[in-house]
Design brief:
The protein has a single domain, classed as L-arginine/glycine Amidinotransferase, Chain A. The protein is 21% helix and 21% strand. It contains eight helices and 19 strands. The strands form seven sheets. The protein has a three-stranded mixed beta sheet, covered by helices on one side. Strands 7-8-9 form a three-stranded mixed beta sheet, covered by helices on one side. A three-stranded mixed beta sheet has the order 10-11-12, covered by helices on one side. Strand 5 and strand 6 form a beta hairpin.
């Protein structure tokens, strides 16, 4: 199983598609609340102040029907890719009754390898397992380890970034406080009440970065950094890849992931949430064409109840997957995105994905492309 990944738009040959089997719900602990904070704030389900008092995390279950439909849609995505001539690989399923993930002073319920774009970055011939933010996902990449082993045996590099301890003191709260102030909600307190001495497992802010914060453009990587955890990880990435790739940092393009804000569809063309994204990019990329679809149609999303957490914004349908420089997989419900792409000459392949707002990811999130035709091109010049 070879490995070649320099972009997200040249001809896709091999891909890993995630699994929704075994998804039961969310542990609403500090790490979960911080990661999804901006959307939880916007949709009225922010629980952070309760956590500050040391209350045990609340377990929020997902309705079994939604999980069944998620699994159906993910299997449909895998079948669509196979029908287009792409070799599809799958992670291990989450074992029934999987033991909790346990760290220094915390325990979390394990989740299946669904949004597999997050915890791995493929750059050239290298697998880089990235340090997650959400505690329940700390060991998620073990479900992909057999596939990574096959890549390694075929000659790929396999690297694991430093694993964070994910103690309460690990997290930089600056962006959370920025978002709370901007949205006019209650302030974000420290996770431990009052001044405190560092605990025995605290090392201060730690590296945290998801692969979905990185846009690959040949030999150049655009990395979104919104706070100190991201910046530390970007420092590591820059030093590790020096001489092979150039890391360009953008400041707060989003709270974390950027693949529902900006994706490259071919050299010279971006799909973007809004045109102002242009100003955040390195100057040579500002001259590319920006396709900006119309605002999302609320009727394109299912209606949910108060116990159903909305983990993404309505812009999640910009999270498309390119099969080649003219063919793009798009959520079948996202007619605005489809129309915009077709108007620019793209062939759109509709794929059903109903509950993208409940499970925190779109078609790009559910996939990890391991082999594309592209190489270390210099798109800057």
């Amino acid at each position: 199983m070879r490995l070649n990944g320099y972009d997200g738009f040249t001809r896709l040959r091999e891909v890993i598609v995630g699994s929704g089997t075994g998804y039961t719900g969310h542990d609403r602990d500090l790490s979960f609340e911080l990661f999804h904070q901006e959307n939880l704030l916007r949709y009225g389900t922010w629980h952070y102040p309760r956590l500050a008092a040391g209350v045990a995390p609340e377990r929020w279950t997902v309705h079994p029907r939604y999980v069944e439909e998620l699994v159906e849609d993910v299997e449909g995505l895998a079948a669509t890719l196979a029908s287009l001539g792409v070799t599809v690989h799958r992670p291990l399923p989450l074992p029934p009754g999987a033991a909790p993930v346990t760290g220094s002073g915390w325990t979390a319920t394990a989740t299946p390898a669904l949004n597999i774009r997050d915890n791995t970055l493929i750059v050239g011939d290298e697998i880089i397992e990235t340090p997650p933010v959400i505690r329940s996902r700390l060991l998620e990449s073990r479900l992909l380890a057999p596939l990574f082993r096959r890549c390694f045996e075929a000659g790929a590099r396999w690297t694991v970034m430093p694993r964070p301890g994910l103690t309460d003191a690990s997290f930089d709260l600056s962006y959370a406080r920025h978002a709370a102030a901007r949205l006019g909600t209650e302030p974000v307190p420290d996770p431990r009440p009052g001044p405190y001495d560092a605990g025995p497992y605290d090392t201060g802010h730690e590296m945290m970065l998801d692969g979905a914060q990185v846009l690959r453009l040949g030999r150049d990587l655009v990395v979104n950094t919104a706070q100190a955890n991201h910046r530390l990880a970007a420092d590591w990435l820059e030093r590790h890849l020096r001489g092979r790739f150039t890391v360009h940092r953008v400041d707060r393009m989003a709270d974390s992931h950027i693949d529902a804000t900006l994706l490259a569809l071919r050299p010279g063309v971006f799909l973007a949430r809004h045109d102002h994204v242009r100003d955040l990019l390195p100057r040579p990329f500002q001259g590319w064409k920006f396709i900006v679809p119309p605002e999302p149609d609320p009727a394109a999303f299912p209606a949910y109840g108060p116990r159903d957490l909305l983990l993404t914004s309505p812009y999640i349908d910009l999270n498309v997957l390119s099969v080649d420089e003219s063919t793009v997989l798009v959520n079948a419900a996202a007619t605005g995105v489809r129309t915009a792409l077709e108007a620019h000459g793209f062939t759109v392949v509709p794929v059903r994905h109903r509950h993208r707002r409940l499970f925190g990811g779109g078609l790009h999130c559910f996939t990890l492309d391991t082999v594309r035709d592209g190489g270390p091109e210099d798109y800057l010049t």
